[in-house]
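seq:
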Amino acid sequence: MREYNDPILTAKPHTILAGEQIKITVFGQTDLSNTYRVNDRGQISMPLLGVVATFGKTPTQLSEYIAYLLSQQYLRNPSVSAEITTYTPIYIVGAVKSAGQFAFTPGVTAAAAIAGAGGFLRGANLTKVRLTRRDNGKVFEANVALQTPLAAGDIVQVFGPLSTTQ
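struct:
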C-alpha cells in the first residue's frame, strides 16, 4: 500500500473527465458559446466543429484547442474560454455518518469532504484514510493524511474500529 507523500497524490491541474459540464465561451460568437456535457468518450459536440476531444485536457488546453480549430476555417483570431461548471463527484465511504456521492470543489481536502459526509462515526480512524484515485486510466490506492487535497472522482474510505485493512 502506498503511503502519504506518494507522487500520485501531488497536486496537478485538473483534466477534463467524462460526465463533467464545461462552459465554452467564444467571445463575440453567442451561437458557439454554451455549456456542454462531456460524453463517455471524452468528447463534446459543438456547432461548426462537430465532435471535439476534451479528455485529458485542462480547461486552458481545451480553450486553446478550440481556438485553433475555429481559426483553421471559421474565425480570425478567435478568443475562447473554457470553464468546468460541474465536476465528476467524489465518494466518501466507510465509518462516516452519511456515506455517498458528493459534489467536488477544487481545493477540498479529505477532512473537509468527511465533514461534508456528516463527520466520523464513533471509533473511526481519525488520522488517516484510504484514497482511491484514477489517473490516466490507472487506479491508485494510498493511505493518506486528512489534509490531503482531493481530485474529482476520488473515493475516500474511512476505517472503522473493526477494520483490519488499515
